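Re: weekly structure request thread

Next one in the queue (250 aa):
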Amino acid sequence: MADIIPGAEPFSGEGGPHGVLLCHGFTGNPHSMKPLGRALHGAGFAVEVPLWPGHGTSVEDMMETTWDDWSSAAEAAYQELAGRCEKVVVGGLSMGGTLAAWLGANHPEIPGLILINPATEPFPPEGVEMIKAMIDAGEEVTEAIGSDIADPDAKEIAYSGTPLRPLLSLVSQQEELAEAVSRISCPILLMTSPNDHVVAPSASDYLAARVSGPVERVTLERSYHVATLDYDKDLIEERAIEFARKVTAS
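Done, posted below.
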C-alpha cells in the first residue's frame, strides 16, 4: 500500500459529551472535511474524520475496494465514537453523504444528519451500463472527479483519476439506499450547490422528498461540489454547528 498523501490523514478531536462523525467522498479523503471538523471540534464536539479503505494513498490501492469496505469502515467509526459520546451526529460530503444517510437509515438513535451535496439518488441505468461497457473494454480508470471548486485559490487533495470498478460498486448500491432513506426519521441539515458538476442537485431533492424526518435546507449559491472548501465554507460551518447543538440538546 502506498503512503498516505500529505494532508489526507484522518482527523480526530477529543471533546464531548456529544460527537460528530464526518464522512469524506469518493476518491477524496479527510482533507475535504477537516475545516468543518475543526470548526465543530472548536465548538466543543468530539470529532472523527476517518480515512476510507483505498483512499488517500493511490488509485491502485482503491482498485480492489467496494461499497462494503467503505460502509463497514463507516459503521466501525460510528460505533467507536458512539461508545464514548452520549449522542453522535453524522455528516458527509458526496459519497460521504451517502454513507451518512446509510448510517441514519440503520441507526434510529442518530439525532441528526448533516448532508452536503449527497449522492443519494439512484444512478441512471444507462450510466451503469456505460461504466460496465468501459470495464468490459479494458478500461480501469477514467477522468478525475475531484476538486470541483469555484474558488480558484482552493484545491482538494484527491485522486487524479476515477477507478471504474469501485465506481460501479458505489452506483450499484444507490438503488438499495434509495429504498432505505424512508427509514430516516431524524432531522436533516441538507446543503446543496446548484452549480455542482459531480452530483446533480436533484439528488438532494430526491432525498428530501423521501425521508420521514424534518429537513432544513440551505442553498450554497457560490460553491461547486466540494463546498466544504469553497466560498460557502464559513456558512456550512456556522449552520452545521448550530444544527449539531440543536439536535443534541433535546
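DSSP finds eight helices and nine strands in the chain. Helices lie at 34-42, 59-62, 67-82, 95-106, 125-136, 164-180, 202-210, 233-249.
Next request, please.
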